[in-house]
């Protein structure tokens, strides 16, 4: 992009829907604990398999939280790192590759930086994989993280590992020990890992029986999601014991889908649904649970995307979103006319979905004239282009 067109103020490029909600500042000054739930799709919430809940802990938690059941996975090739990037910056992931790898030296505005500027926070990331995976070590510095606890900071043994590395239960236990010594207020991002394809888990860690669909990957997925839920339960109860719970706000979000198209038949079997484009779209929903101790629960059915987590958190933390440039929309105030935009150009709104250039009426399931989706597709094209220009031109370095 041409440097002459550099943006002067955040208002030049803000989408609408970032205004303050009645919840503005509800969690101001609290520790922010973000938990990335690996490959967790929303269909597991409140779902039973052979009479057993897959996520008993989260199911209880949603009753005392803001629960958003209509938030879509917007990640692309950067997977977990794309999800992190959206939450941190409110920008879209790139059309190919991961921003972490392609543009780690950019100037970014981010949740960590804003928290440090406005509230004297210290910012920490916790993850059991190698520090350089997804180039996190470098990217976290650009984003304003003060410290990254990675694999080398954990006691990792063959016994406490599976698949990508340290299992969620020992990971969260060891993380909590580190969190116990942090200066407050802090932001802590914890990235879970056990519920990762191909969803491997020893028998002794399976606290629920696998499902019995025709797809083994899906059958195992139930056990790893359930294991993750158990890890979260133990973590929150230890947070309470350590006195870290009351003064924190917790954000649990599924980073992206776990069951790809190839194995999706198994999920259709579990849910008793047919295989069609709208059901596939529906399965791209990830859970978003925002928990502030002591609050009354509220299910918020707003249709939104992962990118919107950013502005929603700013609102809760009492930081005016107008302060910096973001394409994120506050989920508490989000305008229904604004589409959720996917990296491949597809969009979804409350009423319509455009999938592979076909326009659907979501309620009837019918394909309708493409013109009904056109204005949403146009918004999508503009937003993706703007986001790409901001990133590829490193344009945020011009904003004071
Ligand atoms: C590995 C974890 C998983 O560090 O982030 O990566 P994914 O494949 O989901 O992006
Ligand atoms: Mn992931």
UniProtKB/TrEMBL annotation:
Give the coiled coil ranges: none
**Quick check: keyword DNA-binding in the entry?**
no
Q: What keywords is this UniProt entry annotated with?
A: Cell membrane, Membrane, Transmembrane, Transmembrane helix
**Location(s) in or outside the cell:** Cell membrane
Classify the protein's membrane topology as the record does. Answer: Multi-pass membrane protein
Q: Does the keyword Lipid metabolism apply?
A: no
Cite the Sulfatase N-terminal domain residue spans from the record. Answer: 30-319
Describe the family membership recorded for this protein in Swiss-Prot or TrEMBL: Belongs to the LTA synthase family.
Protein name, entry field: LTA synthase family protein
Q: Which organism is it from?
A: Virgibacillus halodenitrificans
Positions spanned in the full protein: 214 to 613 of 613
């Amino acid at each position: 992009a041409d440097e002459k067109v550099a943006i002067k103020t955040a208002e030049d490029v803000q989408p609408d829907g970032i205004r303050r909600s009645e919840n503005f500042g509800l969690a101001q000054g609290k520790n922010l604990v973000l938990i990335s739930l690996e490959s967790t799709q929303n269909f597991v919430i409140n779902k039973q398999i052979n009479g057993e809940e897959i996520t008993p802990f989260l199911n209880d938690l949603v009753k005392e939280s803001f629960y958003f059941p209509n938030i879509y996975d917007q990640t692309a090739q950067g997977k977990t790192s794309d999800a992190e990037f959206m939450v941190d910056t409110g920008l879209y992931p790139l059309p190919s590759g991961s921003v972490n790898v392609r543009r780690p030296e950019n100037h970014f505005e981010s949740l960590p930086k804003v928290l440090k500027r406005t509230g004297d926070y210290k910012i920490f990331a916790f993850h059991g994989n190698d520090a350089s995976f997804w180039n996190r070590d470098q990217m976290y510095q650009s984003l304003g993280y003060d410290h990254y606890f990675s694999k080398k900071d954990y006691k990792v043994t063959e016994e406490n590992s599976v698949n990508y590395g340290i299992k969620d239960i020992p990971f969260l236990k060891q993380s909590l020990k580190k969190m116990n010594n942090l200066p407050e207020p802090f932001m802590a991002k914890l990235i879970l890992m056990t519920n990762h394809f191909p969803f491997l888990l020893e028998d002794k860690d399976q606290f629920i029986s696998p499902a019995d669909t025709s797809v083994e990957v899906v059958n195992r997925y139930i056990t790893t999601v359930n294991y993750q839920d158990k890890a979260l339960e133990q973590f929150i109860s230890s947070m309470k014991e350590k006195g870290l719970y009351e003064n924190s706000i917790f954000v649990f979000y599924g980073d992206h889908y776990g069951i790809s198209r190839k194995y999706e038949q198994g999920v259709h079997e579990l849910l008793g649904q047919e295989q069609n484009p709208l059901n596939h779209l529906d399965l791209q929903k990830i859970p978003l649970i925002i928990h502030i101790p002591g609050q009354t629960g509220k299910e918020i059915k707003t249709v939104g995307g992962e990118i919107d987590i950013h502005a929603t958190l700013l609102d809760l933390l009492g930081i005016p979103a107008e302060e910096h440039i973001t394409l994120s929309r506050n989920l508490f105030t989000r305008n229904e006319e604004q589409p959720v935009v996917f990296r491949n150009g597809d969009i979804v709104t409350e009423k319509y979905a455009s999938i592979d250039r076909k326009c659907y009426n979501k309620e009837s399931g019918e394909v309708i004239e493409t013109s009904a989706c056109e204005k949403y597709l146009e918004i999508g094209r503009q937003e993706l282009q703007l986001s790409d220009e901001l990133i590829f031109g490193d344009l945020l370095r011009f904003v004071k």
